[in-house]
Write a structure and sequence with these properties.
This is Adenylate cyclase, class 3. The protein is of the alpha/beta class. The protein contains 22 helices and 14 strands. Helix 19 runs antiparallel to helix 20. The radius of gyration is 26 Å and the shape is globular.
Length: 548
């Protein structure tokens, strides 16, 4: 056996299985065209050595890093306008071990994982390979951010190229944020230490998010950063005020700012509280940035991670249409990578939400499929708070498995104590267990910390339902009214308010609400999806369901 360090390339044909199902002869002819005309001749011209053919995939080795990248770009450029053929190409610098029968090595597996993250029609390369490129070639690639690759313990940074004829900017550039030094007052060593801790923790927490790059401006050249993030801390009279502001470097325009206040008797508790709020708000902002950068890229050219980003943007619009479109995006992402954990979970979440908004159960055939998918996701991404949150949500809403949901919720909270959606799930579990006061508290914490979240009307509705079940009819009426003010086109909020008003004998006001509700659309709405209720309260669904 012999080993060598080489530049590896993994090539995969997009949509091959679908093409085989639709027209087997056309699929075989497409592979032949790649082999004889579009792919292998180009690779050969650049010194590529075909290590293995796998039907719709190729593994190639190059002795030259630049030749590997140049050949990949040449192949994808030639295929840009091809009606049928589209490839994804991944490249990595790694070791392979060969004998007379086959070749092996972690480098091969890593290259294949990288290829699954490449955009259709594009090229994705590892940071190890990128660092070896000349400046001119490196400028051809965009920083795609960090990725969690299967069986790789640490996140890896990848760089991508995609053809973009006629475009004046790189549409696939990931937005980057340079975190500047935080200001503080009073000017003393203790306050300086608190400000420094807030800054360091915010960098660490936000850097876990995908779709945005976070740089410590004191440690890295950040001249090309998209945004500056500044913080200001002031402590006085037993309270602290922490302000975070994001500014666009292109035009010095503030794009987002938020202030958080809390008592400072326990300075560690103060830091935990304001960081939880700031991280949650920045999560919304980075999702928005990631969605905005993709709007001009054709759907068929988006990578798996980009499809997830666009779907997240759609989910935040909180309409049946946007969630249905997000579901379709996840179906496409899964067709590109059937084992992508986050895509599997986002598909499950969308189905639960859409069926719940219709007051329908998830069909039995989907339950089994999605249960398996969620178990796969947990295996693929055992350090993802969202993955465990989704399986907990499924166990509660679909399986009515409260112990299982609690176990997954606990794991999600251990991974990320600041994950705000955990409060929602905790509230739903407590509601299912008839702990209405506990559910009220959990939903209240979520509502207080998620004022900017587009899902706020849905959260108000859930708390209103919990309060109604617990006999706090005035609170329920208040929450329903607040939700209705935010989403005045949704009849469910008015129906809940009418139910609560009837309980406190405000019958005329209740009738006004019902009359208004009857004038609105009877179509399902996302923010009036009913949470899981105890059996003795499930009659409420008959009162609130669309068209009732």
């Amino acid at each position: 056996m012999r080993s060598r360090i080489t530049t590896l390339m993994f090539v995969d044909m997009v949509g091959y299985s679908r093409m085989m199902s639709a027209d087997q002869d056309a699929a075989i002819e497409a592979v032949r065209e790649l082999k004889n005309k579009q792919l292998e001749p180009v690779l050969s011209d650049f010194g590529g050595e075909i290590l293995k053919r796998m039907g719709d995939g190729w593994i190639i080795a190059f002795s030259s890093i630049s030749a590997a990248l140049d050949s990949a770009i040449q192949v994808q450029t030639n295929l840009y306008d091809h009606r049928k053929l589209k490839l994804r190409i991944g490249c990595h610098l790694g070791e392979i071990v060969e004998d007379e029968d086959d070749f092996y090595g972690a480098g091969v597996n890593i290259t294949q994982r990288i290829q699954t993250e490449a955009p259709p029609g594009g090229v994705m390369v590892s940071e190890d390979l990128f660092r070896q490129l000349s400046n001119d070639r490196a400028k051809l690639l965009s920083d795609a951010g960090t990725f969690n690759l299967k069986n790789i313990s640490q996140p890896v940074r990848l760089y991508q190229w995609r053809p973009a004829p006629g475009l004046k900017r790189k549409l696939d550039d990931v937005p980057s944020i340079a975190v500047q030094a935080f200001e503080f007052a009073p000017i003393d060593s203790e306050t300086a230490a608190v400000a420094g801790d807030l800054r360091d923790q915010l960098i660490v927490r936000v850097s876990r998010r995908k779709g945005v790059l976070i740089f410590d401006a004191s440690d890295k050249n950040v001249e090309k950063a998209t945004y500056d993030l500044r913080g200001r801390l002031r402590i006085a009279g037993g309270r602290g005020r922490f302000t975070v502001t994001m500014t666009s470097r292109a035009d010095a325009r503030p794009v987002w700012s938020q202030t958080y206040e809390a008592p400072t008797e326990d300075i560690f508790a103060f830091c935990d509280e304001v960081l939880e709020l700031a991280e949650g708000d920045l999560r919304l902002q980075t999702n928005a940035f990631d969605g905005d950068r993709l709007v001009d890229i054709p759907l068929e050219d988006l990578s798996v991670s980009e499809l997830r980003a666009r779907a997240a943007n759609e989910y935040y619009k909180v309409t049946m249409e946007s969630w249905s479109y997000g579901l379709a995006l996840m179906e496409r992402a899964i067709s590109l990578n059937p084992h992508d954990a986050v895509s599997l979970c986002m598909r499950v979440e969308a189905q639960i939400m859409l069926h719940g908004a219709r007051y329908e159960d998830l069909p039995a055939q989907l339950r089994e499929i999605y249960s398996d998918d969620l178990n796969t996701a947990v295996i693929q991404s055992p350090q993802s708070d969202y993955v465990f949150w989704t399986r907990a949500y499924f166990r509660l809403v679909v399986d009515d498995d409260v112990p299982g949901a609690r176990a997954d919720l606990k794991r999600s909270a251990e991974i990320n104590p600041a994950y705000l959606e955990n409060y929602e799930l905790r509230g739903q579990i407590l509601l299912r267990e008839s702990d209405f006061e506990g559910a009220d508290t959990a939903f209240s914490r979520l509502i207080e910390r998620g004022a900017q979240n587009p899902l706020q009307p849905y959260r108000l509705f859930m708390r209103g339902v919990a309060r109604f079940c617990g006999g706090d009819f005035e609170g329920a009426a208040h929450d329903a009214a607040a939700a209705s003010d935010l989403r005045p086109n949704e009849a469910g909020h008015l129906k809940l308010r009418a139910m609560a008003l009837n309980e406190i004998q405000m019958d005329k006001q209740a009738e006004v609400c019902l009359t208004a509700a009857r004038k609105l659309s009877s179509e399902p709405m996302m923010t009036t999806k009913l949470p899981v209720l105890p059996p003795e309260y499930r009659w409420i669904s008959d009162k609130l369901r669309p068209g009732a």
